[in-house]
Every structure is written in structure tokens, then in C-alpha cells.
Specification:
heterodimer; A: about 375 residues; alpha+beta; Butyryl-Coa Dehydrogenase, subunit A, domain 1; Butyryl-CoA Dehydrogenase, subunit A, domain 2; Butyryl-CoA Dehydrogenase, subunit A, domain 3; 3 domains; four-stranded antiparallel sheet; three-stranded mixed sheet; B: about 375 residues; four-stranded mixed sheet; about 45% helix; about 15% strand; globular
Chain lengths: ~375, ~375
């Protein structure tokens, strides 16, 4: 059995990520972006790429750091803590995991560009408001050395800024994933005005022609090329949610010690102490599932489904509890936009829905446990 | 071949030879557990042979020093032993409060004479210990100990009452908190005494629980003479020793929770009851329990890895105790619902499920209530003001 302790390298990675993010990307940076109506932070992604984060899952031969999924989760967790905005999960976790399975020269060139921070990917996966609801979706019909794509996609995170799109489609006898330019003719894109202020779009495909060279791997029955990438994405979003809980928890503890009512700090009241202690317990339990998901993806990816869905369910529940308790314990001031709590709550809601909500991952656990 | 690999091979060979076939496989409840003690009747020859073989190796207390009857193993070696025992489903050779609680406290605070006398008797299963902490007026307010130990020259005279003393009616000795100084502040006037249950003036009375079981007792001390060399540590050091020992108790209870969690499966009970298809509300609750069970098991594993890596678990044992016991209560509620009216009998289709369900209600009380655990977390881990 693998150890659930962080390695020395992972501790160093977490420490350096934390000091970088605290200094360069505190929540005030997201607030400034939100106020300016920007959903993407180009400069921050360049800085992160220089630190090797963009290539954390990319082979060294292609210019990456190749540190594995547990390390990617650590970065995602730390970004969640300060709500740092980046295309890390779309590009460096999901797209990198797809591309490195292809083992073609073209895929390797793109991996190199990702590692440098020069290429941003978005995943166009869900066709409907729920993950894998499956209807409606983009259909692909064979046409002239390629395919014609038609149908809707929604919640395409980083879809406004991405250079390229990974598009999942249904074909007559299975599934196909295409790697296409975001500027493809016939593709319409409309921004979603998301509560968390981040870049996301709805896409409309109307007979968009794509070359068969854009097909990732083979047409298949079970989307295997995407399967591992989705698993990695689920785990990374779970880690981000876990970081969101940790970030908002730290603000709450500080407030409990600082805020005076009835002549004493409100953190001296048992009604609040027990609730926040319970929250801490939930966070500790969830942290174990995040670590385990990373370890399973690194050591036994074919059997990581249970570990990953377990982590996402727990992370969603814990983040919801953490942001809810944060606002309640802050009282009225917690409801104001002057504080950062709202940013945590909104991002937690988006990340809970993105790549599978609580019900979706609970049902996966049920299937995998034979119920 | 490194040292640990060769140790694993030797251990595997030794277990293959010495662990009787009847001592492999899951136990069938309390009746299969070996508690040891002066009056212990082994349930089988295999149980006796297994305990003696393990005790001779020092492996009933693998990490205690060999001079005190232990195995002198490192943490890493202990882990190998545990894994190798689990591989052949070997049962625990000896369960005892001496091993889990008193032993660690004696190793830390006991005199050399006390260690040499008491520890080997514990590892060989010769003396069965019980714990005398709680009193009628000292539950969560544990330091409110009223049992008095009066200084009478070469001995103490102990008078008072303890409650919730598990298996006191079967124990040979008790380790107890007593008040040696009534004028000192509450936490400072307490001392830690070892008392022979056969002493004149000691009596016990079992308490019948809602589950029908009677593992807990009331224990009475009526002018009991206790030699002064049975004091552990200094006079007035009792509270410090008690806190140290409680940490071990909590780790044991949360570790025990792992056993409980690994035992009766919510999913299995649900499948047996065929309730999964019909009752969506129950299914959702069972799934939530299953998810939390998996997550809590991983957390117990993670903290075990931390302990083996030399990082103390410390106050976080309060978290393990809290989440483990609260989850166990939830799981049993789901199992009772799944069983329907079949689960309402004392001994029916689902065995003793009803009694187990009732028994779980004490999990979040014994060894410190859930509320006390949350208090420890908020004060000592989160640093919230008092």
C-alpha cells in the first residue's frame, strides 16, 4: 500500500507554491480582475509557467517537470486557497494528459508549447447543464476526409481565451475527441457570465468541418483517450475545492479570534467553537481522500476511479460546509462584497458543478462499490 | 536483502509454524477475544498456545523493550509484523487495557521496579487491568476526582467510588486517579495509583446497559490500604499521566473504529435486505455513510503513516475519536433501517445487530464525549480562546 504522507519534494513544492501565491496572487488580484471584467490572467499564467507549473504533467523530453498527479493536486490545492485564476486544470492537467497519451510528433510539439505557457487549451465536454447528461451533445458525421460537427457545448472553462479546444463528440458507433483551433469556421462562442468571474463560454457547432488528422486517437466505444484525462481533472478540481475550504477556513478562524461581541472574542463561544472544530475534522478527512486520489493516479491509474470520485464527493461537501459556515460566523459583514468570502463561495459552487457534481460522483462510488 | 526484508521472511516463517489454524480468520465477537488475567479460562487450546507463543516472542507488545517482556521491535518492524499477521488473518493473541493503556504510561512515568514487575505480567497475559477514572461526579469534568487517598505513613487509605470501570468484575488490578491533596487546585491534587482488586475493601457491581450487556461496573473503595510504592510518578502528577494515557485510549478507540468499520458492511446489510432497490432515501443515506467510511479509513491510514513516520498524532487523536465514533453510530442507524422489523429482535436474522446498534450510542461518550473532543480541537489545535 502506498504511503499517504507527502514526500519531501511535495512538501517543498507546496511551500514554494504557497509563498508565490500569497505574494503574487492573493484574492485581491481576482477582485481587481472581476472589477475590470477580465476572466483570464495572462501574466500570472506566464509566471506560473516559469515556475514549471504549466508542465507539471509533461514529460521532461518535452520541456515539462513530469512530477505526477499528486504534485498537480498540490498546486491545484494551493491555487484554490488564494483563488488564483489560471487555465491550469484545463490545459496542464486535462489537455496534457490527453496529448501525452497520443505519442505523435504533433502532440509532443503542443506539449512543449503548453509547458512554456504559450498554448492554452479548453475542454468542451458537457452538452447540457449536468456533467455526462449526454443529451444534447455535439454529433460528428463523416464528411470529405474529416467530420462535420454539430451541436452545443456548455461550461467550457477558459473557452474565451483558449487557443485550442478538445471537443468530445458522438459518432454513429461510438465517441471521438477532436483537437481543433478555437477559431474554426462555423463555431460560435458566447461568454457565460459566471458568478465566479472566470472565463467560460457556451459553444455552438453548426456543421463545423474538422480534419481526420484532428481526431485524438481512435473512434471508440468508451472515450478511453479522455477517460484518464477526466479522472485527472476530477481529482484536480477536488484538490482545488479542498484548497478553497482551507482558504476560507483560515479567514474564519482569524475572524473568530479577532471579532469582539459581548466583550469577548466570538471564538470563545462554545456554539461557534464546536462548529468550527467539526469543520476542521471534515477538512482533515477530505484531505486524506485528495492525497489518496493523487497517489492512485500516479501508481495505479486504471483502478483510480473510486479514489477520484470519493475525493470529489468529499471535497464538494466539505467546501460547501466551509463557505457556508464562514459567512454565518462572520455575520452580516460576511454577506458584503467588501470581504473575500463571497469569492470563495462562488468559486466553490462553480467548481462543485464543473466535471461532475455530488450526485454524479456519488453514483460512481455506488457503481464501483456494487450497489 | 535488506534487514526489513529478511525480518519479513523470518516473521512469515515463524507465523506459519506458530499460529494455529483455529486462530486464523475473523473473530466471532467478544467470545473469541483473549483478555488474559489470573482467572482467565482459555476458550481453546489453540487460543492458549497462540498467546503463549506470541508472548514468548515478546510480540504481544512488539515495540516494548525486551527487558520488560516486549519484542523490542522498531516501528517499521512492527508494521511488518502487523502486515504479516493480517496476511494470514491471524487473530490478536491478547487484548488488554494493560497493553493499550497502562503499559505506555508505565513506560513513560513508572519507576524501574514498577516496570520490571508489572510490564512482563501484562505482556504474558497474567494480570488483567482495568481503568478507574470516571466517578459519579466526574464524567466529562474528569479532574473533579473525589476518591480520596489519605497518607497513612507507609501506605495510603483509599475511599470513594469509581464508575464505568470496564470489566472491573473480571480484572485483577486497577489503575486509578485519586485525590491526594484536597487543598491543591483541582488538576494538581490528583495522583495515579495501582491497586490490587483483591485488597480488603474493594468491591464491584456490574451496570446493565440498554444493550443488555454489562461490561461496565461500579467499583467501590472502602478504606483500602495501598502500599506507597504503588504510586506512579510523583504525588500530584496524576493528571499529567491521565492525559498522556487518554491520548492512547483515544487512538485505541479510533483504531477500534477501524475494526468496526471493517466489520459489518452497510452495503452488505442493505443488499441482504434487498432494500437498495426500493428505498431511495435509505439508499442515499447508506451511500453517504459508505463514502464517509472510505474517507475515514483513509484518514486512519494517513495518521498511522504519520505515527510510523515519527510524527506524533497528539491532540489530533481527538479528531480520530470524534469522526470514528460518530460515523459508527450513523452506520448502525442505517443498518437498523435496512433490516426493518427483522432487525428488531435481540437475536434474529441479523444476529445481535440490535444490541450492537444500542452499544454504539456509548462510543461517542466513553473515552471522552464528542463535545469534549471538539473542545480539545478548538482549544489546542485551532487555538481558540477559552
Amino acid at each position: 500500500m502506498v504511503s499517504l504522507l507527502p514526500t519531501e519534494d511535495e512538501i517543498i513544492l507546496a511551500d514554494s507554491a504557497r509563498s508565490f501565491l500569497d505574494e503574487v496572487a492573493p484574492v485581491s488580484r481576482l477582485r481587481a480582475m472581476r472589477d475590470a471584467g477580465q476572466g483570464h490572467d495572462h501574466d500570472l499564467w506566464q509566471d506560473m509557467s516559469k515556475l514549471g507549473w504549466a508542465g507539471v504533467l509533461i514529460p521532461k523530453a518535452a520541456g515539462g517537470a513530469d512530477m505526477g498527479y499528486a504534485a498537480a493536486n498540490i498546486l491545484s490545492f494551493e491555487m484554490g486557497k488564494t483563488l488564483a485564476v489560471s487555465p491550469f486544470i484545463s490545459t496542464s492537467v486535462i489537455a496534457a494528459t490527453v496529448l501525452r497519451q497520443l505519442r505523435t510528433d504533433r502532440a509532443n510539439r503542443r506539449l512543449t508549447e503548453i509547458a512554456k505557457g504559450d498554448l492554452v487549451y479548453a475542454l468542451a465536454f458537457d452538452g447540457a447543464p449536468k456533467h455526462l447528461q449526454n443529451t444534447p451533445d455535439v454529433m460528428a458525421r463523416p464528411s470529405r476526409d474529416g467530420f462535420l460537427l454539430s451541436g452545443p457545448k456548455t461550461l467550457v472553462m477558459e473557452g474565451g481565451v483558449a487557443d485550442r479546444l478538445l471537443v468530445s463528440t458522438k459518432v454513429k458507433y461510438g465517441y471521438a475527441v477532436f483537437d481543433i483551433a478555437a477559431t474554426q469556421t462555423g463555431l460560435s462562442s458566447s461568454p457565460m457570465n459566471l458568478i465566479d468571474g472566470r472565463d467560460a463560454v457556451r459553444l455552438g457547432f453548426k456543421d463545423v468541418w474538422v480534419s481526420k488528422d484532428d481526431l485524438c486517437g481512435e473512434i471508440d466505444q468508451e472515450e478511453p483517450i479522455l477517460k484518464r484525462a477526466l479522472l485527472a481533472g476530477y481529482a484536480a478540481v477536488a484538490a482545488e475545492l479542498s484548497g478553497i475550504a482551507a482558504g476560507v477556513f483560515a479567514l474564519t478562524i482569524a475572524y473568530l479570534k479577532d471579532r469582539q461581541q459581548f466583550g469577548r472574542p466570538i471564538g470563545s463561544f462554545q456554539a461557534l467553537q464546536h462548529r468550527v472544530a467539526h469543520l476542521w475534522c471534515e477538512m482533515e478527512v477530505t484531505a486524506s481522500t485528495i492525497l489518496n486520489a493523487g497517489r492512485m493516479l500516479d501508481s495505479d491509474p486504471d483502478n483510480a476511479d473510486l479514489a477520484v470520485s470519493l475525493a470529489k464527493v468529499r471535497a464538494i461537501r466539505t467546501a460547501r460546509l466551509a463557505v457556508g459556515e464562514a459567512i454565518q460566523m462572520h455575520g452580516g459583514i460576511g454577506m458584503t462584497d467588501a470581504l473575500d468570502l463571497g469569492f470563495y463561495m462562488k468559486r466553490a459552487r462553480v467548481a462543485s458543478e464543473w466535471l461532475g457534481d455530488e450526485s454524479y460522483h456519488t453514483e460512481r462510488v455506488a457503481q464501483l462499490r456494487g450497489l | 536483502m535488506d534487514d526489513l526484508t529478511s525480518f519479513r521472511q523470518e516473521t512469515r516463517d515463524w507465523l506459519a509454524t506458530n499460529c494455529p489454524a483455529a486462530m486464523r480468520g475473523p473473530t466471532d465477537g467478544d467470545a473469541d477475544i483473549c483478555w488474559g488475567g489470573c482467572n482467565w479460562q482459555f476458550q481453546s487450546d489453540a487460543q492458549r498456545d497462540w498467546m503463549h507463543a506470541m508472548a514468548d516472542q515478546g510480540w504481544t507488545a512488539p515495540t516494548w523493550p525486551t527487558g520488560y517482556g516486549g519484542g523490542g521491535l522498531t516501528r517499521a518492524q512492527e508494521k511488518v509484523l502487523t502486515e504479516e499477521m493480517a496476511r494470514i488473518e491471524a487473530r490478536s493473541p491478547l487484548d488488554s487495557f494493560g497493553l493499550w493503556m497502562l503499559g505506555p504510561a508505565l513506560l513513560q512515568f513508572g519507576s524501574e521496579v514498577q516496570k520490571r514487575h508489572h510490564l512482563p505480567q501484562i505482556t504474558r497475559g497474567e494480570i488483567r487491568w482495568c481503568q478507574g477514572y470516571s466517578e459519579p461526579g466526574a464524567g466529562s469534568d474528569l479532574a473533579n476526582v473525589q476518591t480520596r487517598a489519605e497518607d497513612a505513613g507507609d501506605h495510603y487509605v483509599v475511599t470513594g467510588q469509581k464508575i464505568w470501570t470496564s470489566y472491573a468484575d473480571k480484572a485483577d488490578w486497577i489503575f486509578a486517579l485519586v485525590r491526594t491533596d484536597r487543598d491543591a487546585p483541582k488538576h494538581q491534587g490528583i495522583s495515579f495509583l495501582l491497586i490490587d482488586m483483591a485488597s480488603a475493601g474493594v468491591s464491584t457491581r456490574p451496570i446493565k446497559l440498554i444493550s443488555g450487556a454489562s461490561v461496565f461496573c461500579e467499583t467501590f473503595f472502602d478504606g483500602v490500604k495501598v502500599p506507597k510504592d504503588q504510586l506512579v510518578g510523583q504525588t500530584g502528577q496524576g493528571w499529567e499521566i491521565a492525559k498522556y494515557l487518554l491520548t492512547h485510549e483515544r487512538e485505541m478507540i479510533s483504531g477500534g473504529a477501524q475494526g468496526l468499520l471493517g466489520g459489518r458492511s452497510v452495503m452488505k446489510v442493505l443488499a441482504d435486505a434487498e432494500a437498495d432497490l426500493k428505498d431511495a432515501t435509505l439508499r442515499a443515506e447508506a451511500l453517504a455513510c459508505e463514502i464517509d467510511t472510505l474517507a475515514v479509513e483513509l484518514t486512519l491510514d494517513r495518521y498511522k503513516d504519520m505515527a510510523e513516520g515519527g510524527q506524533g498524532v497528539g491532540d489530533a487523536s481527538a479528531m480520530l475519536k470524534y469522526i470514528g465514533t460518530e460515523l459508527n453510530k450513523r452506520r448502525h442507524e442505517v443498518m437498523m433501517r435496512a433490516g426493518g422489523s427483522d432487525a428488531l429482535e435481540w437475536d434474529g436474522v441479523h444476529g445481535t445487530l440490535a444490541a450492537e446498534w444500542l452499544r454504539t450510542k456509548a462510543n461517542s461518550i466513553e473515552g471522552g464525549t464528542s463535545e469534549v473532543m471538539l473542545e480539545i480541537i478548538s482549544r489546542r489545535i485551532l487555538g481558540l480562546p477559552g
